[in-house]
Design brief:
9 helices, Metallo-beta-lactamase, Chain A
Length: about 260
């Protein structure tokens, strides 16, 4: 996974970035640039831009003057937050509660990324969804299941960090197993420890598939982007339901334990 920018439409670009564990294993990360109906832009998630990627973003946004907001969507994706703000300091800065607690010196907007108030500010162009039945900010910092999912209506693109993934195995393994949309592997550990949490998650996933049933593209962190022009199989909406079916045993095990 090298740094690159994917043009998904005239209104949406997905930035595939690098994130190395131990400085060696690159599991990747992402941000997305989306054009609003006003002609202004929103950066979904923070990433330090450089080289050709930054040149393309700056060319599209008048050197960043047209980027009106940076919306940080994943509570635990914080590595590039300060640098992104430094690169585009005039963009309004939005974050989850954890972002504000971690970087209290930054000029955050009062509306949290996970709030209905933030969603209302961008409702003309985006829909946002927070998974139900799971911890949004886990007490275990190694559990990164939940994030705010964003849907850019004009380009029919879902931007998801960790929650929904599109897994492509490399090399020969990729020839043996087709790429698939999945839920992040930490679901079992992040379901809320209460009765009905599993059913709340099911209902959320089903509603997501119904509400965003015209989605054509899925941009997922740490994995890959599934683009409509390359999708020769199930719709993304159906893929979400298939992914839900694959975690049913996990949900049933939780129900057996908590009721």
């Amino acid at each position: 996974m090298s740094k690159q920018i994917l043009k998904i439409s005239d209104e949406f670009w997905n930035i595939r970035g690098e994130f190395k564990i131990g400085g060696v294993l690159n599991i990747g990360t992402q941000a997305s640039l989306a054009r609003r109906a006003t002609g202004q832009f929103v950066l979904l998630d923070a990433y330090t831009l450089d080289g050709q990627v930054k040149a393309e973003v700056d060319a599209a946004t008048r050197d960043g003057a047209d980027i009106e907001a940076i919306i940080n969507l994943h509570p635990f994706h914080t590595v590039h937050v300060k640098k992104a703000h430094q690169q585009y300091p005039d963009a309004r800065l939005y974050g989850t509660r954890r972002h504000l607690d971690k970087f209290p010196d930054l000029p955050w907007q009062t509306e949290l990324s996970e709030s209905a108030e933030c969603a209302a500010l961008f409702a003309e162009d985006f829909e946002f969804s927070v998974p139900a039945g799971v911890d949004f900010i886990s007490s275990n910092e190694h559990l990164h299941f939940s994030s705010v999912l964003a849907y850019h209506k004009a380009s029919r693109t879902i931007h998801s960090d960790d929650t929904l993934m599109y897994l492509q195995l490399p090399g020969l393994l990729g020839m043996l197993k087709k790429p698939e949309v999945t839920f992040h592997m930490t679901l079992a550990k992040t379901l809320e420890r209460r009765a009905s949490a599993a059913e709340d998650f099911r209902a959320w996933a089903r509603q997501l598939a119904a509400d965003w049933n015209d989605a054509e593209n899925l941009c997922a962190a740490h994995s890959a982007a599934l683009l409509g022009r390359d999708n020769q199989s199930e719709s993304i909406s159906n893929r979400i339901l298939i992914a839900l079916g694959k975690v049913e045993r996990t949900l049933q095990a939780h129900e057996k334990k908590f009721g």
